[in-house]
Amino acid sequence: AKLPDWIRSDEYHNSFLIRTDEGLAHARQHSTKQGLPDIAVSAAQGKLLKLLAQSISAKSILEVGTLGGYSTIWLAQALPDDGRLVTLELSQRNAEVAQANINHAGLASKVELIVGNAAETIINLHPEQLFDLAFIDADKQNNKLYFTEAKRLVRKGGVIIVDNVVRGGQVADPAVNEERVEGVRSLLRELKNDSEVDATTIGTVGEKGYDGFLYAVKL
Ligand code: SAM
Fold this sequence. Notes:
This protein has helices at 3-17, 22-33, 43-55, 70-76, 92-104, 118-121, 143-153, 179-192; strands at 60-64, 84-89, 111-115, 131-136, 154-162, 197-206, 209-218. It is an alpha/beta fold. Helix 2 (22-33) packs antiparallel against helix 5 and helix 3 packs parallel to helix 4.
């Protein structure tokens, strides 16, 4: 299928299944206005993240890679009143936009945004209670590190999701030697013999093109 068909298809399905949400719409518009890149998850993917979190009755969520807080808001919407979400972002500027978006969505009391290099800040996380779900969507070169830390930080039976693991098929294309692609490959090699999790990749296609989520359960 050609890309315009994928966009039309997402829009068609979304028109039945995804209600307009002021907080999410504002986050998208404000992020664009502030010049943030258009690399957040799609609406359908954001809703899937929310539903997956709800499926396991998640009360605590870890996110690596906040950008403007779009996926943060989707995930935080899955939380009960006493739920919490910790999100890690390198860029001070992105974090400012994200915090404003999270505040606007009325989710500030549930979300803690930690600014800094997640390769360092994640190592310093020692939560009293382990997380139910981790969503990894930052610098792909560090996927393996983030995944290893997420395993430490997520409870047994908890879920770890990694975005952009297909990259238009580039990950499986031996002719591509890009750093981000290598970051995904090294995670996959690690997972091959990892007995602490069970995982699968599910390809996605839609308004954000052709990519995929890795979904892992901590055993
Ligand atoms: N999860 C967001 C969403 O769907 O709305 C999109 C995240 S965007 C794809 C990746 C983000 O990771 C960017 O905001 C980028 O600044 C951040 N990032 C890149 N390297 C990072 C690092 N070392 N530590 C923390 N965040 C990082």
